[in-house]
Design a protein that fits this description.
InterPro entries: Apaf_helical, NB-ARC, P-loop_NTPase. This is (wild Malaysian banana) hypothetical protein. The chain contains 14 helices and 6 strands. The chain has 2 domains: about 140 residues, 3-Layer(aba) Sandwich (Rossmann fold), CATH 3.40.50.300; about 110 residues, no CATH class. It is of the alpha/beta class. The chain has a 6-stranded mixed sheet, sandwiched between helices. It is elongated and about 60 Å long. Helix 4 packs parallel to helix 5, helix 5 packs across helix 6 and helix 7 packs across helix 9.
Length: about 290
Amino acid sequence: MVEQLTKQYPSKNVVVLAIVGFGGIGKTTHAQKVFSDNKVQANSGTTIWMCVSHEFSETDLLGNIIEGAGGKYNREQSRSQLEPTVERLLRGNKFLLVLDDVWDARIWDDLLRNPLQGGAAGSRVLVTTRNEGIATAHVHEMKLLPPEDGWSLLCKKATMNAEEERDAQDLKDIGMKIVEKCGGLPLVIKTIGGVLRERGLNRNAWEEVLRSAAWSRTGLPDGGHGALYLSYQPSGPSQVMLSLLCLIARKLCVPHVGHRQIMDSREVCRSMRCHFGGNRGAISKRAAS
């Protein structure tokens, strides 16, 4: 993906690339690594990260791009007023724009394509999405973790140090069964790893997690994962982890209208901004003038 973002495409200045996969499979994590890569940063000029999510505001999306590019976002302006500002700020400049968690292809096709098409050669738009229909010709498809890799990840998340990680090998027989229940999804494995870390390297505690009815928990929104319910049990993770699980819940559950939706998009974006240390849905680095 780093090579794809930094290579030259003679036929067009602005190239769209996509990271595609199930919710919780690690698309955002992979995009973070690519976004932070020294080669990518050095090659990109202005870099902007946007959390989009299922429900989004066209004006806020445009406004946050404006702020990321060094401009000022007037929240009273309409889409038709904001689009020329985006175009003016990025025209002739090289940029990398990450659109994380895109559900609707119209975000690029209808909203952003025209304002961004004036970017300099080497400009890139990187999209993370679970919708294959949004993907372009330049696609990186995320794969489920194989069992041994899943165990390695669970072991790291369930232990505090290298010594504990070695001791955890005595629990591998149970751990591999837990990994199987996680379905190869890194985010679920990390969640359960946090639960196990709080319970310690105790065979009975791990077996309790393995046998928990939460794996087949009903009453969650469609697409939800029992691991999320398990992580909320009284003997489960700390309050800090519960806050993180709000974001995880959004990652693993298809949004629903009304009371069945776990979080609304504004709450999710606030969680993402906390994760990245940003302020209004975008983080940016402008090239030195």
